[in-house]
Amino acid sequence: MTDSKETLFEKYLSPLFQHVLLDQNALMAYYRGKDWEAESDRLRNPTIQYPDYYESQNFHGIKGGYLNLQAALTYDAVTQYFLPPNEAWVRQDLLRHIRCQPRRIVDLGCGTGSTTLLLKQAFPDAEVIGIDLSPYMLVAAADKAQAAQLDIRWIHGNAEQVPFPDNSVDLVTASLLFHETPLAATQAILKEALRLLCSGGEMLVLDGSQSTLRNTLWLTQIFEEPYIQDYAAGSLDAWMGAAGFGDIRTEPVWMLHQVTRGLKPLSYQRIQFETPTIAAEWVPG
């Protein structure tokens, strides 16, 4: 695991964020304005089993990663600076690639719900569900949804095991998720997304540009990201294809990001025709 003190963020950017870019007073006011443990208990699934990769190491230089309240407090404030040229534009690009008119949408690894809220605003009549492993991130997401007066369902759960039946979802999305999961988890999540989707349903993935990351090593060293180099070396197109998706296309977004879209193939049944009975050939006597 990368030592957080060796990341570019810790070396050069952390003091800038602490003293200039982050509104520390606003963050402290938000922290003190609620009982975070009580609020997270309201959303927490007591039976959940966290994957080893999720609870055994740091993410973004935060000890304990997303199971640390500090991650939920600072995520939005920091992320706005790391999705250039503009976070809202980048997230909206995922919505631009949606072709269906979904009735049920599941946003996997929803975090603080930034993309989830955009989905509900774009499809107000759809049922929109955000799923995340961190109860603290879900508290922040619920606060944002309440402030925006959006009815969104938040579930504390693992994207590898979503508590919905087969063929019950029209659209599955994942934003900034797969650069933070090991390959085995990525493959499991993609297979689970395929299971959830109705025939012809869509999956949309927004994440860092794999081609750009491969060719720009320092971008993988900004934060403590245990799996980003494996993500950069791989191919989301290939991973989705292996999971069973079809019509897979990846498009660059502002050079640093990419949106990948795949469809669940239409189901079909093989039709077995009866073999016709052919009378014996008549031979004149």
Describe what you observe in this structure:
A seven-stranded mixed sheet has the order 3-2-1-4-5-7-6, sandwiched between helices. By secondary structure, the chain is α/β, with parallel strands linked by helices. It has helices spanning 8-21, 24-32, 36-43, 52-55, 69-79, 87-96, 114-122, 135-147, 183-196, 210-215, 228-233, 236-243; strands spanning 104-108, 127-132, 153-156, 169-175, 197-208, 246-253, 257-263. The chain has twelve helices and seven strands. A hairpin with a 3-residue loop joins strand 6 (246-253) and strand 7. The model is unreliable at 1-5 and 278-285 (pLDDT under 50). It has a single domain (1-265), classed as 3-Layer(aba) Sandwich (Rossmann fold).
CATH architecture: 3-Layer(aba) Sandwich
Q: In the CATH hierarchy, what is the superfamily?
A: Vaccinia Virus protein VP39
Instruction: For the largest sheet, list the strands in their spatial order.
Output: 3-2-1-4-5-7-6
Task: Give Rg in angstroms.
Answer: 22 Å
- By DSSP, the count of extended strands is 7
Instruction: Return residue spans where pLDDT drops below 50 for at least 5 consecutive residues.
Output: 1-5, 278-285
Predict the CATH topology: Rossmann fold
Short recap of the structure:
The chain has 285 residues and is α/β, with parallel strands linked by helices.
Question: Keywords, please?
Answer:
285 residues; alpha/beta; Rossmann fold; seven-stranded mixed beta sheet; 12 helices; 17% strand; disordered N terminus; disordered C terminus
